[in-house]
What we know:
Number of strands: 18
Strand content: 15-25%
Mean pLDDT: 91
CATH class of the largest domain: Alpha Beta
Amino acid sequence: MIVEILNHTYQYEMEKLVRVFLPNEKITVVFESTAHESGEAVLSTEIARHEARVTLRSGETVIEKTAPLEGEADSDRERTLAALVYEIMTAQTGYRPKWGLLTGVRPSKLFFALQTERDTDYAVRCFTDRFFVSAQKTALTASVAAREAAVLQTSRPDSCSLYVAIPFCPSRCSYCSFVSHAITADTAKKLIPEYVSLLVREIEETGAYAAKLGLRLESVYFGGGTPTSLSAEQLETLLQAVAHAFDLSTAREYTVEAGRPDTVTREKLRVLKDAGVTRISINPQTFNDTVLREIGRRHTSEMTESAYLAAREAGFSNINMDFIAGLPGDTPESFRRSICKAVALDPESITVHTLALKRASGLGTQNTPILKKQGEAADEMLDYAYSCLTRNAYFPYYMYRQSKTLGNLENTGYAKSGFECLYNIFMMEECHTVFAVGAGAVTKLKAPHGKDIERIFNYKYPYEYISGFAEILKRKQKILPFYGKYSV
């Protein structure tokens, strides 16, 4: 499809909205009226003097809709145009996305803004009436926003968090689009010792900036990849570096992802526990062994359960488990069994993702269309997860959305009361600075008393991180000047 952008600057939002309806179709954006001889469908989006106009030309079909502009604000004009696109694409495809016009990553952020503008009832009405979000997803957002609000109140102007990136895994899953290297490859495995050594230096430099600014560390999060792909000795080295560089006495949460059960050993669990780690994640993704083989995981359901029980024996009282709805070969029935199995094991939190077919993933490079029935199956899986988990006292506390997810659906974290992952909320709602170290890490500097955010990007891949390490340290020098503009 060709999308024409005429007399407005909302091309990004228009393209993203069209992709909701046509996730696998090539979409070409142009900024002038197009000749239509090719036979390709053309969606024209235009802001005229006093109205928005959207026209679809597809074969012999021509559909045109107009609406008066609601106001002069960009957000109002954009919404009016998006509503027309939504109306036409819904009629053309027969698909009515549950998230309506919303294509952003953080629905709860918009909900908070609307609540602040007036109240919760107003936010709910805007979601359902102005943005066409279903009652179900609106209720989910309101629930998440309420739990996030309680945690956000604990963030202070001098707060900060730390993210440590470990971009290595025992193997690469077919759905994975993260910056991660399979350590089965000799080239990746050889990078680890130097990577760890340089990461220690970056942790030390970053901790020195935090100390000089007098910032208070709230949470630490080791993510990946799979941090427990490293040896026990390498993990201990990094954990000690964090302890030396940062004041952990104020940290209310310390998470390390031990996501792949085949990387969990009793020695590594002891190292984590001795270092003061309070929360770990052991991720089945599914308890269906056939599906695990299909996606390239090298563990079994039995190994997941063994790793979980070993973590309990090691003294961990805050464990998360991740699942993915819509994995190849999975069905609503087997997904239900996975969720029921997780509830029986009784972790403190359960996160339910929706499969996203990114171009950087193995699945994303296959030209298999995202069939409507796959999205419907994923939707059924999420519905069951919500009903089962809330019934068992797991409540949604954070949520985010990705492009190219089955059914344009969401990822939601559920937790027992008091076990919400603080870092997930701090990071998602951007309420304070998050220092990030390692390959692919992005530091987000947040103004202590305002909304200004400045990002510092590290090189994406481990080999780039190693070769460009001097430049990474140079970029970190932006931290002090940023805070120099504000009073902490």
